[in-house]
Amino acid sequence: MMDFENFGTSTAVGAPLTQVEKAAAVLLAMGKGVAGKLLKYFTQSELQAIIAAAQNLRAIPPHELIDLVNEFEDLFTEGAGLMDNAKMMEGILEEGLTPDEVDGLLGRRAAFQAYETTIWDRLQDADPVFVAKFLLNEHPQTIAYILSMMPSAFGAKVLLEIPDDHRADIINRTVNLKDASPKATVIVEARVIEMINALDAERNSIGSNKVADLMNELEKSQVDEMLASLETVSTESVKKVRPKIFLFEDVLYMPQRSRVSLFNDVSGDIITAALRGASMELRESVLSSIGARQRRMIESDLAAGDQGVNPREVAIARRSITQEAIRLAAAGQIQLKEKEEERQAA
User: Residue ranges of the Flagellar motor switch protein FliG C-terminal domain (predicted)?
Assistant: First the structure.
């Protein structure tokens, strides 16, 4: 803590300086390097008083300043000016304090400034797959504007994650993009803030994602047993984990169109192995999603029975299908479950 009372009375010509004004004058004269190191010796209230004094400090002739800082003569540079006092004090503060501390002392709206200057930069550390999936819920013109504002390297990654049937239209809109109205900009940036919040929420759910990843490697009976056990400890944890688990049996709850997309590139051997031991309902759900010729071949293989089938091969086949489903869903190409309104309509 600094003692303002230790400063003597100025004998210079001009309005007498208060103790706080003298402290401000000395700091301004020292330069940022030295003055910044001294800031830690002031209390918060003293710093606020010095800032206020610096902003209204009168011009101080060099000879008057020498009287005030005679013990610091080697640090004083004649002609330092002391005219743009507020700007110099800000520079000194930035040398010795953190940005948040400077913003607090100067009364800045730090949060608003961070929003203005970093809203787009904050996206570049995100998962481009997640961002692309989020953007696909928006109008193509909105997507084009957001892509144009993103850092180029990250925007390119996001663009690659957008499905082919949407990509050309979005690129065309971006190429021919015109200046957005202030009102439209506010609306779009509000959506970007929502996306950032969603990203933050996703990062905060690392634990539930990891547990879901582990359970996705298990059989349904094992997962059901673990979830039942977890529910005895925390129902809330089950609610966080269960929606992120996708097992082979969950193929039943996929929209038909998504099932067709999923099995379109899965080989017949893998489908056959995955359907070994499956319920008739699940078999029909899968077989109705593939071509007639492939279906007849798989049905013929399944009719031979499951004798001699290695359970490990069945598990591997099912896991490869569920992993592909999770990948396609993350890219926004399929849905893992029907939306509520679609189920009600059905």
Answer: 229-336
pLDDT value of residue 21: 80
Q: Phi and psi (nearest 5°) for 290?
A: -120, 170
Q: What is the per-residue burial (b if ≥16 Cβ within 10 Å, else e) of 65-82?
A: beebbeeeeeebeeebeb
Q: Tell which residue, 86, 88, 61, 63, has the closest CA to residue 73.
A: 63
Q: Which of 84-98, 106-120, 169-183, 232-246 has the highest mean pLDDT?
A: 169-183
3 state DSSP class of 97: coil
Q: Where are the beta strands (DSSP E) in the chain?
A: none
Average pLDDT over residues 193-210: 66
Instruction: Give the span between the Cα atoms of 275 and 287, in whole angstroms.
Output: 9
Q: Report how far apart, in Å, the C-alpha atoms of 251 and of each of 87, 181, 220, 306 are.
A: 64, 45, 12, 21
For residues 63 and 14, the answer to whether their CB atoms sit within 8 Å is no
CATH number of 248-345: 1.10.220.30
Q: Classify residue 298 as exposed, middle or buried by CB count within 10 Å of its CB (0-12, 13-18, 19+).
A: buried
Distance of CA 2 to the CA centre of its chain: 42
Helix or strand (DSSP H, E) at 224: helix 220-231
338 CB contacts (<8 Å, ≥6 apart)?
253, 254, 255, 346
Q: Within 10 A of 30 (CB to CB), how many other CB atoms are there?
A: 20
* 240 sits in which H/E element: helix 235-241
Q: HSE of 7 in the Cβ direction (CA atoms, 13 Å)?
A: 22
Q: Is 137 helix (H, G, I), strand (E, B) or coil?
A: coil
Number of residues assigned to the chain: 346
119-203 maps to CATH 3.40.50.20: no
Quote the CA–CA distance of 194 and 200 in Å, as a whole number. 10
Phi and psi at 182, nearest 5°, equal -55, -40
Q: Cα(155)–Cα(147) distance, rounded to whole angstroms? A: 6
For 30-55, what is each residue's pLDDT tens digit? Answer: 666 666 666 666 666 777 777 777 77
Token duo for residue 233: 């400890």
